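Hi support team,

I submitted a single chain yesterday and got back a structure, but I'm not sure I'm reading the token output correctly. Could someone confirm the output below corresponds to the sequence I sent? I've pasted both exactly as they appear in my results page.

Thanks,
R.
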Amino acid sequence: MESADARTTKNQERNDYADERVPVAFRTWSTSSIFGVMFGVTTAMIFLSWGGVLVMQFGTVPLVIGMVISTLLIGGCAVVFSLRASKTGLGAEMLSRSSGFGHLGSIPVALIFALAMIMYFAFEGGIMVNAIHAYFTAIPKWAIILIFAALILPLTIYGMKAMNIIMWVTLPVYIVFMIVTVVIALGQGGSGVEFWSFAPDHVDTSAGPPVLQILAASLGYATQVALSADTGRLIDPAKAVRGSFLVGGLSQLLVFMVCTLLGAWLALQFKEADPGIYLPAVMGIWGVLFVVVTQLRINVVNIYSSSISLTTIGKRISSRAPNRSFWVVIAIVVGTIAMLTDLYGRITSVMAFAAIFLLAWVMTVIADLLIVRRILKIVPEDDSPYRKGELPEFNPVGLISVGIAVVVGVPLGLGVAGPFGVTLAPFLSGLLPLLVVPIAAMLTRGRFYRRSEVNAEKETQRS
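Hi R., thanks for writing in. Yes, this is the structure output for that exact sequence:
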């Protein structure tokens, strides 16, 4: 019979150390296998759809410029997060605890990330629903949504090991279908020349220059940064640098410079931005299969990441909180409800507003890691406490930073300063932490980054 220790280890692995530091002994995957998970994210059709929308709205030249800058910004932040995660074995939420938020203070940012990943689950699912319904019009959309949710559950429940298998097994299918799609697009007369010179008849500049509007939209993908940490924590620290550039840097290059631009080109060839519409139209049932396989790949990652964050929230609220498997179910239920309300149909406005919260959090952590620790050295650079006995419940540095960013950004995002203010909102939300965090850390002299030994001993005795 299986020993109690073996059962505990197996349960912890299934939980994928959602609320604990990943031990080095558990990090047995190669960097290529871990990159395979992030590559699965880059193949999401939301990037194809998004590229199509942007090129039709702004033209090719502004889109390419915007994607280059987005690769550098998002990719650079993703490398920082992934590198820190690999060295510490901590995911994005647990890194946030020691990077300015405290043990309980990081709960709001964990919830932001969890809800953002559920939001992406609904967006990706919306593309799949459109594809199936476009071909099988007799099947109601609500039935497709429920079947899709039922399929995702068993694929996500087993965590990283299952994701690794799913990503690599479905990769050849994705590559073959994508090649066929490109060949069909070329056969419709597109040589690519029109793409590089394409410009719409009219571009609305009331919200700012086209490149600025594109960059504002790109910041809505700041979850890619946190996702790089959740994946990067499984990288062997001996391979931290190489692995982080693969997981954090190369994956973002593929997102913005390959998938998004490819989606833009396909949209111009098929005269339709949504791959859930044009793939079934040009490939029939095979186009539907292409969409379903792709969306299953990405939504396994979305629900996995959301469940990791929800697990850490539950464990801090109650020591008897259920493990990650329970939160997988909760995330799927919430995502299914979002799909039923057609969140995908409001993707642009929802993502722009979400970017305000995401940038406030991500840039607060970046400011802590690069300015407070590395430049000002207010806190030891290699210090990464995450347990209750090691940290104060709340750290005002991160909470003040996010609070100010949200107070400034949300009204702008709601349109109080007009369309241009909406565009500026995520930029201000991301830039303010770079100023607020070091000032707050200096004023508090780093006192709230680690619980004092005396207080920690008292806390242990009370426990």
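A quick pointer for reading it: The CA atoms of residues 99 and 203 lie 41 Å apart. Let us know if anything else looks off.

Best,
Support desk
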